[in-house]
């Protein structure tokens, strides 16, 4: 365990994380979530079935703000950004224009993102003790997001930064574009927009040899070559590290 992750663990004043840590006795990972957008982002976190819960499932991050989260050993799940969120003054309900999880609160409490949303997906210390991670546009796109591993060793594959630094909302194809008051706020996947097996890699198209990239997935792939652009885009979109911490940045500066 790195000094960095020890510090992160001490800082997180969550009993739960500390207790899980003691029970597991294994080293934990930290996520440093950074908002470099010039607007507030509300990250949402969803733990996979059967993995330990996190100390938070949603919070707000102002521009330039960051937050360190201690992640239990062998955690799997996803993190995404919600945008244009508001609490209704009358009903008290918290909702977001993009990435909303439907919990009516800042914490997502076990609920996932409404597409379209850029997703970072993790399976920590999975097969061969490797962390598997990716950034996916399979459920569409709403905010630029990069995942950068720190201090990890290479897996069999690649321990590299991945994500989608580009802002795709404005340049999104017309049939996929989501606008609110004529402002582009998100970009749907072709699967969500058209719902056909061909775009969703379902039914007769449910295998890698049958489901091929489309002109729509090609739009995402061209803009963001390391992110998943459709369900079977594994070859260029899945990354592995061993024993890394991760920096997850919304609106990273263009590279
Ligand atoms: C945020 O940045 C965008 C693009 O650079 C700019 O158009 C917009 O006015 C900025 N918004 C704020 C609130 O600073
Ligand atoms: C708050 O919720 C009420 C009831 O659903 C709705 O009529 C109203 O438009 C909402 N206000 C805002 C600012 O969204
Ligand atoms: C990983 O990143 C390095 C440095 O940016 C780059 O040279 C290399 O091609 C990348 N490897 C893969 C498989 O993407
Ligand atoms: C991964 O899990 C194994 C047990 O399955 C454990 O021995 C090992 O220390 C873990 N590695 C990391 C980096 O957490």
From TrEMBL:
Query: Does the entry feature the keyword Disulfide bond, yes or no?
Result: yes
Leader sequence segment: 1-28
Lineage: superkingdom: Eukaryota
Keywords, ordered alphabetically: Disulfide bond, Signal
The record's listing under SMART domains reads: THN (SM00205)
Residue pairs linked by disulfide bridges in the UniProt entry: 37-251, 85-96, 101-108, 159-241, 164-224, 172-187, 191-200, 201-211
Database matches in CDD domains: TLP-PA
Q: Please report the name of this protein according to its UniProt entry.
A: Thaumatin-like protein
